[in-house]
# Entry
Amino acid sequence: MAMVCANALAVARRSSPPLFFALPPPLPTPFSSLRRRYGPQFPRLAVYSDKTSTMNYSAAADSVDVKEAANSLDIRVGRILKAWRHEEADTLYVEEVDVGEAEPRIICSGIVQHVPLSVLQDRSVIVLANLKPRNMRGVKSCGMLLAASDASHENVELLKPPESAIPGERVWFGSSDEKDTLPDAATPNQASVQKKKIWELVQPHLRTDESCVAALDATHTMRTSSGVVVSESLKNANIS
# Structure
C-alpha cells in the first residue's frame, strides 16, 4: 500500500504545473531613450561645452570698439631734446623727450640698428605716453616712440607729426572734427590692467597706407590739430 501511494505522488509531481514561473530577462533600454525621458546624464558638460565657451568669447571680442580703445590711449607729439647710447645695452638709445610736461621724459628705444643717432637730435616724434614705466637695463623708461616697420623689420622709421605740431599735443584717430569729442586718456593702470592692455588690442590694427599716412584699420587717420602723422617712406607698414 505504501509503495502505491509513493508512485502516485511521483506521477502527480511530474504532471502538475510549477508553482513559480521564470520571467524572461528584461530587454535593455537604449541610452538615447533614457536621455529623451530624463534629460542629459551630465548636464554640466552640456552647459560648459567648448563650443559654447568659444561662442561667448567670440561675441565678447566682437563687441570691442577698437577705435574707442585707440582714442583712450595717451598718444602725444614729442620733441627729442637729447639722445645718447645706453651705457649697458648696445641695442638701446636713451632719449630726453619733451611731451608738454614740467620735465622731459626719459624713454629707451631699441632702434640703434635702424636709426642713426644723429637723426634723433631735436626731432619731432610720436610718443605713447600712458604705458607703465619699465626698467630697461638700469634706466627707467616712461613711454615709447612709435615707428613704422616693413614685414622683415629691417627698415624702421619713426612716425613724424607735422612740423608745426606742438609738444604735448594729443594725437587721435579719425576726422579733424573729432578732436573735441575725444574721451579722457586712460591712466597707465587702466591701460595695462583694468582695460585689459589697450595697446595690445589696438596695435595690430595700426598701419601706414599707400601714401605713408598712419591710420587705424586703414580708415581712421592718425592726426594732430596741425595735420596727419606719417612715415617718411614706408607704405603699408606695421606700426609699433
